[in-house]
Design goal:
2 copies of one chain form a homodimer.
Chain A (H helix, E strand, L loop, with lengths): L1 E9 L6 H12 L5 E14 L4 H16 L5 E7 L1
Antiparallel strand pairs in A: 1-2, 1-3
Chain lengths: ~80, ~80
């Protein structure tokens, strides 16, 4: 069994309205030193697979086929 | 300037309909060895602050006051 943590973020320079909203809310709470906030997704997958290399291959495929939208998103992941 | 990566996940044993939907979609694509999928949030904050200890304190406060819902979510973060 392996656990994969997948991080999906918007590509640089794309509008990130959720991030902007969080930044404003933080400023309203008094945090004036927030330069930028980016909002992404964290997906944790437990895979029945004992071979880390094979797991990595599968997770990369899953990201490209389903989890990330390659037009607007970047992904990275860590296998534990 | 420090960058903080904040990981917000649902507490264990709480219903995670997004995770279940992703698991089903992966199975439909032929990935039969997916044991569990959990969906969380990734928030990246760039903070104008040169003191890592101070940044850590602020980020923890932000998580508790705004970013995570302590009733149903856990958070962790990494300062870079």
């Amino acid at each position: 069994m392996v656990e994969a943590e997948i991080y999906i973020t918007l590509k640089k320079d794309l509008a990130d309205p959720q991030g902007i909203t969080i930044k404003r809310a933080l400023e309203a709470l008094g945090y004036k030193n927030v330069e930028k906030v980016g909002m992404g997704k964290l997906i944790i997958i437990n895979l029945n697979c004992d071979d880390k290399i094979e797991a990595e291959k599968q997770i990369r495929q899953m990201c490209e086929r389903l989890l990330a939208n390659p037009i607007i998103e970047d992904y990275s992941f860590k296998i534990k």
